[in-house]
Amino acid sequence: MFLSVCLVNGQQFTDLNGRVTSTDNDVAGTHVMNITTQRATTTDVNGFFTIPVRLNDTIVFSAVQFKRKEIVVGLNILESNFLFVPLEDALTELDEVVVRPYNLSGKLGRDMGNQKIEPVVTASTLELPNAYVKVMTQNERILFEADHGNFVIVEYDTLTYRPRVVISLHKVLNRVSGRTRKLKSLVAVDEKMGPLEKVRKLYPDSVYVQEFKIPEEKLNEFMYFCEADTLFEATVNTEDQLLMWEFLKKKSMAFRKENETD
């Protein structure tokens, strides 16, 4: 124990392992930061992480969906070399909303242009530490679990320090059975359909029918017509609803003209 304390006080780092948990198990990409040394990492799909620490360092755990949590590294944590961190969901209470008349015309395009829109609040505008961490889809998480890491890993025995070769049978079996290939194809489909689904859910079907004059039975055809435009993905990625509205408006006119619909 005395030797351990001396090493820690001598600024020796220890790789601390741990796991973050929550009630819904959605802990992938949780930001883990040693604010004492400014070193950081993120959790994997199962919430596991590894970060270098010293005695009395402060570790902060944060994510948009969780309450911020701070833990000071004590001797008991260093000795166990594993930290179990349950996180609480962040409950966001909305302010009271009062609806007042704004001389709306009933034309969504005109009314949106006449209204003063406040700046969009996102994780990046708030400068949250994990704002730019890409959250994996369900299929991406399953693929990561099935195929992450190397086929062959060289480990060293903690007592003899002799190397030993470990083969990832889980990864090999997934490759041989074709499961990995199937999961990759599902991820590819998700990536292709992502922007299209995002636009489809942007407005209810009644908006496309009433405002853009697209027959309800042709909505899917109209969506694929928009997707074929080279500007489609770039416009969706801007997340600018006014820009997206103008794009859809122009494409609806071209679609109606091509299909001779009124």
Q: In angstroms, what separates the terminal alpha carbons? A: 83 Å
Structural class of the secondary elements? alpha+beta
Instruction: Show unreliable segments.
Output: 1-9
State the major sheet.
Answer: 4 strands, antiparallel
> How many strands appear in the DSSP assignment?
9
Order of helices and strands: HEEEEEEHEHHEEHHHHHH
Rg of Cα set:
26 Å
The average pLDDT is 78
The number of distinct structural domains comes to: 2
- Our count of helices gives 10
* Overall body shape: flat
Q: How would you write the strand order of the largest sheet?
A: 3-2-5-6
Percentage of residues in strands? 15-25%
Helix coverage percent of residues? 25-40%
Keywords:
262 residues, alpha+beta, Immunoglobulin-like, 2 domains, four-stranded antiparallel beta sheet, three-stranded mixed beta sheet, 39% helix, 19% strand, flat
